[in-house]
Specification:
alpha/beta; 629 residues; 25 helices; Arc Repressor Mutant, subunit A; 10% strand; four-stranded mixed sheet; single chain; Rossmann fold; five-stranded parallel sheet
């Protein structure tokens, strides 16, 4: 006989599941098992079954539950009436809770004795006994009484297992599980510290520091306290690079490489002075410190779909020692492609990967000096050793990258002037830049990769990947309608599919219908922090006021295509001036342009979502319409 309470409460007899009727019978069984052979008084059983207001028939019902258990569990089990209650002796039967406690206790003892391999193995076996939240299927009264104690035991074993695994040098393997637990338990300081340790030892110092900062805010917001001394000490060790290496990596064949501190560039010096002594990074030297390999890139979307041709373009350029600029309209997935390609060529840039979002939370351009400060800290430069002048930060940054093969991703660039100070300079390092503005192509020696809407098949695959398998099986035509309402743009598609995933009771046809009316489409394409309008607004807000007003006039006309002559008539200006406005809108990726065969004229058109946005938010009466003469 085998009993399980670390998940759904259940029993197996000779390999066959024992039928248990409802939560009350499961509660009776679980309570008797947790009593561990002691008498469970009727009063206590009644309380965990019905709380403090049992029905008048509680005694008779309790007898019925116990009688059914006797029948179904068979004669090999001793379940008897003793005095004022019931007692169950499981004999040679097994209970997963008892097995868990034995394994976790032995694993904990091994950990204290620094027998890390045994600790890691036993604790992993203990945690594998859990198949879900403990005591699933019992009454809330028993769950409230016993559940917290059992969950605390699980978390303690989880932390002990992570500590043993980190001591063995298994930091990369532990990052996904620790990330999930820290997300679920943001104020659990030991887990957060273990995630910081795993990230730092994997060369992700900046991510480790970000995890600390998130924890500091969570503790302040939820509990009104600061991190404890252990977490603060760990934060200082991560910040200064003094965190010790794994305690016993040699036991599993892991070799800890000797650290290498990148040479620092020239510090500030007064005019007329000779070269100063090389600046130190502020990180202690010595064989016990792991090498800093910056790895600050966010993860690429796991459900990234399509863009096979564009991905190959980016990878071919990077492997051919060429920088890349990815450009396209708002919502075309420029950032996702950059991160996806960066993951595909991770091994070709073994000495680090740096990332910066060049757009502030308010949508403005981030100063290059601020970004260089991030990069220098990720490269091991202590804050007090970071130059304050932009030119000196550029020199130090390029000196540190000289001779190293690193990948730098500069996301959401505003213009080429913002990007140039952040380029690594000569050497084997490469850069991927994303941005809306097409004049980023002016950056020397770059491969320009343009993104448009996804192909219809890829749009359908992205919808299915995000919404979940089977959501469109019965209604492929609804998927096609949703895709077209989203202009087949990855951002809009992702929002629409995520709304379906968040509303499992919605049929696909319902969302297709909600997206159909143009006047409500943009309002529907918003979920959490994802908002099609916000992306478009960040572009339109950086267009000069007269061009923005012209955008509103052109969008309100509702034409499926425009020429310079059409625009001149609508804007009441000459063809040359109108063409200049149209080209400014093309440069901002708010219009598409193409040439007609055999005709010198250009044609222009809106993506429907851009046109809807411009009609609603670029009304010409709100902005003076003064076009260039």
């Amino acid at each position: 006989m085998d009993f399980q309470i670390l998940g759904p409460v259940s029993a197996e007899l000779d390999g066959h599941t024992v039928a248990l009727d409802g939560s009350k019978q499961r509660t009776t069984l679980a309570a008797l098992l947790l009593a561990d052979g002691k008498v469970m008084p009727d009063e206590r059983l009644t309380a965990v079954l019905w709380g403090w207001e049992p029905p008048a028939t509680s005694t008779r019902q309790l007898y019925t539950y116990v009688s059914r258990l006797r029948t179904r569990l068979g004669p090999g089990l001793c379940l008897e009436r003793q005095g004022p209650g019931y007692r169950m002796d499981i004999g040679d039967a097994t209970l997963d809770w008892f097995a868990f406690r034995a394994l976790a206790g032995t694993g904990r003892a091994d950990l204290v004795a620094q027998r890390y391999e045994g600790a890691e193995r036993r604790l992993a076996q203990a945690l594998a006994l859990w198949s879900g939240p403990a005591l699933t299927g019992v009454t809330e009264h028993l769950l409230e009484t016993e559940g917290p104690l059992m969950e605390e035991a699980r978390l303690a074993a989880l932390e002990d297992h992570a500590e043993a695994a980190l001591a063995l040098g298994r930091h990369i393997d532990m990052i996904p599980a620790l990330t999930r637990q820290v997300t679920l338990l943001p104020v659990r300081e030991r887990l957060r510290g273990q995630l910081m340790t795993a990230l730092f030892r994997s060369g992700r110092q900046a991510d480790a520091l970000a995890v600390y900062e998130d924890g500091r805010r969570a503790l302040a917001d939820e509990l009104g306290i600061d991190p404890g001394p252990s977490l603060r000490t760990l934060h200082q060790e991560v910040l200064t690079g003094t965190l010790p290496p794994p305690a016993a990596p040699e036991r599993i064949g892991v070799t800890v490489a000797a650290p290498t501190v990148p040479a620092a560039g020239p510090p500030r010096q007064a005019a007329g002075q000779g070269p100063a002594a090389p600046a130190r990074t502020g990180l202690p030297d010595g064989p016990g410190r792991p090498a800093l390999v910056p790895a600050t890139l966010p993860s690429a979307p796991a459900d990234f779909t399509g863009r096979a041709v564009e991905t190959e373009e980016v990878l071919t350029a990077l492997r051919g020692h060429q920088d890349v600029v990815i450009t396209g309209a708002s919502g075309t997935g420029k950032s996702a492609l950059a991160l996806w390609a960066a993951e595909r060529c991770r091994d070709e840039f073994p000495q680090g990967r740096l990332y910066a979002d060049l757009r502030t939370p308010r949508g403005g351009p981030r100063p290059p000096a601020e970004v260089l400060g991030w990069f220098l800290r990720a490269l091991g430069i202590a804050p007090e050793r970071t130059p304050s002048a932009l030119d000196e930060r550029i020199q130090l940054y390029r000196t540190l990258l000289a001779g190293r093969r690193m990948l730098v991703v500069l996301d959401n660039a505003c213009d080429d002037a913002q990007v140039r100070p952040l380029l690594p300079g000569e050497g084997a390092s490469r850069t991927v830049v994303t941005g809306v503005r097409s004049h980023l192509a002016s950056l020397e020696g770059t491969r320009l990769v343009r993104l448009g809407p996804l192909a219809p098949a890829d749009a359908g695959r992205l919808l299915a990947a995000v919404a979940g398998p089977g959501r469109f099986t019965a209604s492929p035509e609804a998927a096609a309608r949703i895709a077209e309402s989203c202009d087949r743009l990855p951002l809009a598609l992702r929002i629409a599919a995520a709304r379906l995933a968040a509303h499992p009771h919605w049929p696909a046809e319902l969302l297709a219908g909600r997206l159909a009316p143009p006047e409500r489409r943009l309002a529907e394409l918003r979920l959490g922090s994802l908002d099609v309008r916000a992306g478009l607004r960040s572009v339109v807000d950086h267009v000069e006021s007269a061009t923005r007003a012209a955008l509103g006039v052109l969008a309100a006309a509702g034409l499926s295509r425009l020429t310079a002559g059409d625009a001149a008539a609508l804007l009441d200006t000459g063809p040359d001036e109108a063409e200049e406005v149209l080209e400014r809108l093309v440069d901002a990726q708010l219009l598409e342009a193409w040439s007609v065969d055999g005709d010198a004229r250009l044609c222009y058109r809106f993506l429907p979502l851009v046109q809807l946005f411009a009609r609603a938010e670029c009304a010409p009466e709100a902005v003076p319409l003064t076009l260039p003469s």
